[in-house]
Amino acid sequence: MDASPFFMFSTSDLLSSSSQIISANSINQDITSQIQKCPSDTYIIVSQPAVSAEDYSNRDAAPHLRHKLLREDKHIRSSISATEVFGEINSNDIVQQIEQRCGAGLLKIDASTGSFQIPDDTKPRVIRLDFPPLPAGSQRASKLLEHDIFLSSMLDLLSSTKYTVLYTTTPTTIMPHSAIAEPEAYQMDMAFSSQAHMELKRDYIAHGKRVVGDNITLPDGGLFERYQYFTPGMSAAMNHISSQQVTDCSD
Predict the structure, then answer these.
(1) Which pLDDT score, from 0 to 100, does residue 219 have?
(2) 16 exposed, middle or buried (CB, 10 Å; 0-12, 13-18, 19+)?
(3) Residue 56 in contact with residue 4, Cβ under 8 Å?
(4) Mean pLDDT, the chain, integer
(5) Spatial contact of 122 and 161, defined as CB atoms under 8 Å apart
(6) Which of 33, 150, 215, 240 registers the highest number of CB atoms within 10 A of its CB?
(7) Torsion angle of the four alpha carbons 205, 59, 4, 116, in this order, in degrees rounded to the nearest 10
(8) Cβ-count burial 198-211 (b if 16+ within 10 Å, e if not)
């Protein structure tokens, strides 16, 4: 299926209703309307290629992202979790809009390097955070968790508590086979990764989550089981879109 998830969370009141969000076009329109208000000091545009809703369905897949979407962080005032978005969310266009409308400076972070540095200033900023595609096989879940910790650590280092995160993805079906089967090898700096994990572990202790050793125990249920805005009508609409795509391909 040519669809993948979209997530958003913010310390500002944004997108009060997500009941109509079933396509990339509608998400793009809603994002544009909210960006005009320039509600945040920092905007983080995450790009995670080659994933599906199934990658996030396990309750341990992305614990920090889950924590934000469930608004267990008291600073988060709005969030959206869309399991399947049809079409492409134009990340470059979003970045340009924020730069032009909000006077934000652009900072690009390549997560494959395993490190980053955020200038300590109060200027509006848009951060483009690019993750590499997830590998196939047994390392897939562990890499997604590393990406989750990376994003968590970056949020901890922001100088302002007013931020908005737009987490965009692309489906595995549009990635070249070689990019999925044999991704470019990268290794996070071990000191960075360990410190980030301890910060994440401390956060979950503070929020009453069970921690045994280095393991974080979360509530039962996957990310979409606990938090999603889809109604039966929206599910039917997506099924209709999917069936139409299959019909078109067969003609």
Answers:
(1) 43
(2) exposed
(3) no
(4) 76
(5) no
(6) 150
(7) 30
(8) eebbebbeeeebee
User: What is the C-alpha to C-alpha distance for residues 157 and 127, in angstroms, rounded to an integer?
Assistant: 13
Q: Burial letters for 165-180: b for 16+ Cβ neighbours within 10 Å, e otherwise? A: bbbbbbbbeebeeeeb
Give the type of residue at 167.
Y
CA 174 from chain center: how many Å? Answer: 18
Query: Is residue 230 pLDDT above 50, yes or no?
Result: no
pLDDT at position 36 over 70: yes
What phi and psi, each to the nearest 5 degrees, are found at residue 23?
Answer: -140, 155
Among the listed ranges 77-81, 92-96, 146-150, 177-181, which one has the minimum average pLDDT value? 177-181
Token duo for residue 69:
């979407």
**Residues 6 or more apart in contact with residue 155 via CB below 8 angstroms:** 44, 163, 165
Ramachandran region of residue 94, left (φ > 0), alpha (ψ -120 to 50) or beta?
alpha
User: ∠ CA 57-46-175 to the nearest 5 degrees?
Assistant: 70
Quick one: which H or E segment has residue 100? helix 91-102
- By three-state DSSP, how is residue 131 classified? coil
